[in-house]
Amino acid sequence: MPTPKDIDTLDEAAARAELADLARRLAEANVAYHGDDAPEISDADYDRLKARNAAIEARFPHLKRSDSPTEMVGAAPAEGFSKVTHAVPMLSLSNAFAAEEIEEFDRRIRRYLNLADDASLAYTAEPKIDGLSLSLRYEKGVLVQAATRGDGTTGENVTANARTIADIPERLDGAPELLEVRGEVYMSHPDFAALNERQSARGGKTFANPRNAAAGSLRQLDAEITRDRPLRFFAYAWGALSDPLAETQKGAIDRLEALGFATNPLTALSDGPAEMLRHYAAIEEQRATLGYDIDGVVYKVDDLALQRRLGFRSTTPRWALAHKFPAELAWTRLEAIDIQVGRTGALSPVARLTPVTVGGVVVSNATLHNEDYIAGRDSKGQQIRDGKDIRVGDWVQVYRAGDVIPKVADVDLSKRPDDAQPYAFPTECPECGSDAVREEGDAVRRCTGGLICPAQAVEKLKHFVSRAAFDIEGLGAKQVEQFHADGWIAEPADIFSLRDRFGSGIQQLKNREGWGEKSAANLFDAIDDKRQIPLARLIFALGIRHVGESASNLLALHYGTWEALETAVSEAAEQSGPAWEDLIGIDGVGAVMAGSLVSTLNQDAERASIARLLEHLEVEPAQRADTDGSPVAGKTVVFTGTLERMTRAEAKAMAERLGAKVSGSVSARTDYLVAGPGAGSKAKKAAELGIETLDEEAWLTLIGNA
Ligand code: IVH
């Protein structure tokens, strides 16, 4: 390739020809890269072509082409999509499978709202589309942004791609100033089949199911590829709004339809569980002939004022429920049982199966849960599967429901080979040889190797970089395994010292298979990006047993800073005293979770490892959203006695929305006790401690809601 210097010697005709050539080569490289085919040129060559193109354009600005590579959407492949923070988080739905759970859903809502059993309460019922959700932002009726759900808080900016979907209007007539429309992008069965045919005809990647095809097609850096893919969109919800769409869910959906969106024709109103279940049955009956995948029915409280009162749990609305279709089944041969060691040392048996299609997806691995499950009993020693054990060589039934990991559900004894032997569960860790012990009351056998067990270390690292934790782009499970095997990273802190330890480390990394100069540089940048991390993510990333994403959020909001959490945890080391009481007083934190948190964080090795990690990080304190000016932000409130204007659950949710912490017990840290009639020991304790006690009216006045 000529050096940039000889650009000075180019004449206009040569420059024009070369720009045309570069535009074509870079466009082809983009298609090859993003179209999931094998990239045809290296990252470095790609960058050189781009630099050459830019240099020629700089010398001959009037020759810049309308399809100039410098202006291309997603021009630099490795940059990926820009991030979008959702104005209103995109939540998921709680799931149910059984009819009783629908009745329980209705009862729960009535209890929360204090509605009598015979008070009318309407719900919508509509198909749950099996695609991926998308949020479309319209300002003054013009589509300005489209974003995927991502982790619910931050998604990917796929605006250019969304504009290629025919069901998504560019402009709306008579819409609110600001309107975020949410719904599902999906692919129909015939379009999916045709796409796979086209893909395999040209040696490209085929997709396992329509949902994967839809996701793969929407998340193309080159929107021209998306344009070629037959995507569709159903609108079923909304995010930020300047004016309400309607007073009911059904009214809002009708309004979206009037604005030009496709809405699902099977959306119907029902007056309670019996009718909801009838709609469910009707939708299930049509499932096979709809022409697109659905995986259940979604019920939503119809009255939007009630939806507002019901509000949200940490990741799901209280006013909606997904009623999933039953799982799908298939029979196949169990070829082997492998043991995987998890990040907390749990030994998990995995069934290796002769591949079989279950509900359209090829399954070759399934979970066997634990040693009791294989032996044919539950954790209490009761028989399951009529006591039939599972052996290598058996003919087994595999079960798969939605996204969950497939499991081995049953075994056909009539097909058992004569020489099949009962499975002997290992009592030593297959990875490090340490004893694997099962504690009283625990269904799981665990490796006692702790940090010396390489499997535990790797799983911890994988969890650390996972999406809800540090979410480091370019550092996924595969790379973690590679780096760990090479001895480059043994614990989380090592990730952040990689760049320094490597010195000119990009050189080392770029010589590894799968790495180029650009991807190596990108990785170090992606790691640097995460040196500043929100407290909740840090807590979750530590991978403490029982401390999941929503518990991490609760802990972060309660303690605010890492230092405060650490102090509290060491004060609570004995699992007694005020710090311990305060910890288990956090609504949503039970004694088991608190015990695990306290014992893990008080281990010397763990503390030292976290201290090494913190040297590289700036931890962002946790803040509650939108509580500016709230008179109770940061205050700790306890509710006791009977409330008359709202239920206890509702009062608690309202206080939390205003930034207060709601605790179940009175302590020296309590700021307000809100006591209704019938308050007992808590009122007495508050009086002893000199804590301000308010009645319900005074509380509502304080929060400006009288
Ligand atoms: S409502 C606040 N309605 O299911 C709740 N979701 O499992 C907003 N989904 O992330 C969601 N069909 O991607 C709703 N008719 C429907 C749906 C639906 C599919 C998806 C959506 C959501 C996921 C939750």
Tally of DSSP helical segments: 25
CATH superfamily of the largest domain: DNA ligase/mRNA capping enzyme
Q: What is the highest CATH level, the class of the largest domain?
A: Alpha Beta
CATH topology name of the largest domain, in short, is D-amino Acid Aminotransferase, Chain A, domain 1
Strand proportion: 15-25%
Structural class: alpha+beta
Amount of helix: 25-40%
Question: What is the architecture of the largest domain at the second tier of CATH?
Answer: 2-Layer Sandwich
Overall 3D form: globular
What number of domains?
4
> pLDDT under 50 segments (min length 5)?
34-38, 73-78
State the end-to-end distance.
75 Å
Major sheet: arrangement of strands: 2-11-10-3-9
Query: Are any ligands bound, and if so which?
Result: 2-(butylsulfanyl)adenosine
Arithmetic mean pLDDT? 89
Question: How many extended strands?
Answer: 24
Report the C-alpha radius of gyration, rounded: 29 Å
Main beta sheet strand tally, sense and closure: 5 strands, mixed
